Amino acid sequence: MIQLEKIFKWVNAGNNRTFLLKDINLTINEGEFVSVMGPSGSGKSTLLNIIGMLDEPSEGSYHFLGNDVYKMKEKQRSQLYKENIGFVFQAYHLIDELTVYENIETPLLYQNIKSSERQAIVADMLDRFNIVGKKDLFPSQLSGGQQQLVGVARALIAKPKLLLADEPTGNLNSKQGEEIMELFRQLNQESGTTIIQVTHSEKNAEYGQRIIHLLDGRIEK
Amino acid sequence: MIKTDIKTSLRTILKQKKTTIINIVGLSIGMTAAILILFWVQNEKSYDRYHADADRIYRITNHLTVSSGDTWVWENSPLIYADAAKREIPEIENTARLYSAAWNPLIINRNGTLMKEHGGAYVDSNWFSMFSYKVLSGSLASFNRHPNNIILTESRAKKLFGNSDAVGKSLLSDTMSYTVQAVVADNPTNSSFQFDIFIPIEARLADKDTRNDENDWGNFNYLTFVKLRPTAKSKQTEAKLTALIRKSKLESDIKSSLTALPDMHFETGLQSSATRHINENTIHVFSLLGILLLLMACINYVNLTTARASLRAKEVSIRKIVGAGRKELFLQFITESFLMSLLSVVLTLVLLRLSLPMFNKITDNHFILALNDILLWKLIGLAILATTVLNGIYPALLLSSFNPLHVFRGIGLLRIRDAYFRKTLVVVQFSIAVGLIIGTIVIFNQMQYIQRSNSGYNKSQIVNVIVPWKAFGGYEAAEKQKSGMNSIVQQLKAESSIAEVSVAQDNMVNNLSLSSGGFDWDGRPEDFKPSITRFSADTNFRKMFNIQLAEGEWYTEDLSSVKKFLLNETAVKELNIRKPALGQRFVVGKDTGIISGVIKDFHFKSMHDKISPLVMYNDPWRFQLFIQVQPGQNAKALAAIEKIWKANLSKFPFEYWFLDEMFNSVYATDNRISTLVLIFCGIALFISALGLFGLTAFTAERKTREIGIRKVLGASVFNIVTLLSREFILLVTLSILIAIPLALMMMNSWLNNFAYRINIGIWIFALAAALALLIALATISLQAVKAALANPVKNLRTE
């Protein structure tokens, strides 16, 4: 599903070139649940953002579902992204002005799905996550765990093949964190969603089938 | 999608209450001003175009060369010109004539009381076929059959006959009985012909003397319109008309030209006119001002929206991550600005409703706010479109351009570039405001200068009453007239409420009468026939109007000795009177006399015009009474005057004017402009202050933490206020520097409309700058002081 070859990423600060990623070669197959670990500044988030097409490397190639991402036109890439990738953030990043229902619905809006269809999909999702009763609340009225649940629901609403999570439990207490992790495992096993998560926690990393360790921009063998 | 956009936008609009209120108030005031001005502009531009075939109708204009370099331009033609033109020039399809009764208003006899009915006109049989009138009852066809027929407009008919149908009723004048043949709809606001009573020209010509006079090529009394055939060229017709009038009048230097009906409203340079004119530049300047006001309001929106962009950045980024493209985000923000415009329109309608009566009063119009008026909705649609686009484009582009990763990492990439843009807009806004302040001060200063220059007499205490020249038997009864006038003057003087009475030939506020030829003096070249104003006044006139002699002496009431003439300084100079001027021979018409004195120049015309040569003399053939009232006794004096009028002139209706009213009517357009500019200036300042208020409020909000930390470190309230206001004050200062040269240019060109004008002094700029800075500082302080006084501990804790 994902093939990264010779990915380098650097930033220039004055005369110094600082490498964020160095020679990353990585293949992830469909249906895998991968955890990325490493200390702060090791390039975990950068790698996740590159996989999520939010960022581009300075060098290297990236194939996603057989498409050479950097040779695609902006429009096609955006289409590929919209249909296949969902994001979950540490800080939830819900839109404060929208209700739970509307937050979850947003990705569907940008895929031009009809109103009646959207209603059905969102209703299903609310049901599945047991948050029907909260659908008219605004993010500020929810607890952190509940907000992240909405965040996950939103990431999943368009049925992406790949779910990217950047420290999804970082702002949660351990019980809430566990619930989210259980949810991820369930997703991975039952729906076959490919999941890549960045985490600091050994315990959470164990939910994945494979753990990638990053240090100073390199994958530790 | 649209539904969600609308929902989101409404929530955003409701959430930021302060910003929303500032935006809506600013936008709706800007819209109201722009719509009112466009109403007016549209009305002015459409003058007379509503007549069928307006593009083929022309008015004959006559140019009379009276002396080398001195041409009189008349809108009137001789009565017989129309018939001759139609007979001899085949391109002319039809002609129509109108004689304005402004100077001889119809006198109506209502149950024995005589009243002057202004707004009447004598028209010929073609008038109603050439111009479009809507008949409400009766018929136009019968109008021409008899000179005693009359046509009224609806509101005049209502005034004269109440609500019953006027057709068939008769109207008694002082000499005739007219029968109403038809009632037509009121004249549209955009008609040059604001006449409410129409009488056949035949009625005027019923008098044998008048008929003889009018059948002469020398009397120019009729507005004459020609309708050309569709194929005709106006230039060729002009040449034929000129040839015709030269042949008929046996004069070689007269010229006729054609003024297209739609251009008539914008004519300048006519000696006097029966219709209303406007300078086209005035329209352009005001259109520009309207657009600028709307622009200023839009600037507020753009500034506040982009200033808050960082607050929206998170939302935009998330939307991008969940799949929104730029197009969708762009649409979302355009929707937001559209909704804002729509909300503003609601308030605009209320404001329009409230301000229309005042606007009508200022512009002397009668617009109505009808919700079924297509023009209104067109203008509103235009305003919505303009504000949506102006407001929406930049913020939408800016907001949709965020890179989500940068936003999450807290990199404010856009802040620098965007802040410059915002500052530029503030400078634009304040430059306009400062320019308007300067304009207002200059205009008011000029108007005051006009008042001051004419302040030799107390205008509000002098009443002008005109005795009809036929009152004592006309030309044949000069002696009777003289004693009659004297007797009236004596009776007036006997009243305790009246201080002084003077009799003169013409009024003194705006005396437009000019004569050429018939003057002579030693040393005059044969072909030098300049235009001179003849002015006969009694000896009291000098005292009442405080006219100063430069040299020599005033004439006396003793008319038996040699005729004495007084020339103003301009006359002495322009006529090249031999030195010394005193004692030189001077001839006015049949009277030969000497120059007995030179009067210091005074304004007897509008200050738009240069003081021209004037000759004053004492001749009893004069009918204007100037009655100076004792202070505070206006009512008593008016009653006394009316009583004396009734006792002596019962056959004529009584009418009077205070000189200050006449004076103000001469400067009506100038007063109108100064009022409008004052209002615009106020609006512009208000909108700019509103924007500044919003921006400071936002800056203070953003800097709450910084202010808190600074206060903990020992900053005083003054330090904080300085911190928050320094930048804005610099911007306002820059605006002042930009506005000054532009305003100087604009106002100089306006002042050049006056022959007598003020010079724009430095103090005007200083005053405008001080005013702008004061307003800006006051606005900023409102927020800054609040922020500076806030308890830092509280702010830092909530962070």
From TrEMBL, chain A:
What InterPro entries does this protein map onto? AAA+_ATPase (IPR003593), ABC_transporter-like_ATP-bd (IPR003439), ABC_transporter-like_CS (IPR017871), ABC_transpr_LolD-like (IPR015854), MacB-like_ATP-bd (IPR017911), P-loop_NTPase (IPR027417)
Instruction: Show where the ABC transporter domain sits.
Output: 2-221
Could you tell me which CDD domains the record lists for this protein?
ABC_MJ0796_LolCDE_FtsE
User: Quick one: a GO cellular component term?
Assistant: membrane protein complex
TM region(s), chain numbering:
none
Q: Which UniProt keywords apply?
A: ATP-binding, Lipoprotein, Nucleotide-binding, Transport
This entry's Gene Ontology molecular function terms read:
ATP binding; ATP hydrolysis activity; transmembrane transporter activity
Matching PROSITE patterns, A to Z? ABC_TRANSPORTER_1 (PS00211), ABC_TRANSPORTER_2 (PS50893)
Q: Which family does it belong to?
A: Belongs to the ABC transporter superfamily. Macrolide exporter (TC 3.A.1.122) family.
State what protein this is by name. Answer: ABC-type lipoprotein export system, ATPase component
Native species: Sediminibacterium ginsengisoli
Lineage, top ranks = Bacteria, Pseudomonadati, Bacteroidota, Chitinophagia, Chitinophagales
TrEMBL record, chain B:
Q: Name one GO cellular component term.
A: plasma membrane
Chain ranges passing through the membrane: 21-41, 283-304, 329-354, 374-399, 420-444, 676-700, 712-740, 760-785
Presence of keyword Cell membrane: yes
Answer whether the UniProt record assigns the keyword Chaperone to this protein: no
Q: Which Gene Ontology terms cover its molecular function?
A: transmembrane transporter activity
Q: Which InterPro entries match?
A: ABC3_permease_C, MacB_PCD, Macrolide_Exporter_MacB
What are the entry keywords? Answer: Cell membrane, Membrane, Transmembrane, Transmembrane helix
Domain MacB-like periplasmic core: where?
20-243, 431-640
- Where is the ABC3 transporter permease C-terminal domain positioned along the sequence? 288-404, 679-788
Subcellular location field: Cell membrane
Principal place of residence: membrane
Q: How does it sit in the membrane?
A: Multi-pass membrane protein
Name of the protein: FtsX-like permease family protein
Starting at the broadest rank, the lineage of the source organism is: Bacteria, Pseudomonadati, Bacteroidota, Chitinophagia, Chitinophagales
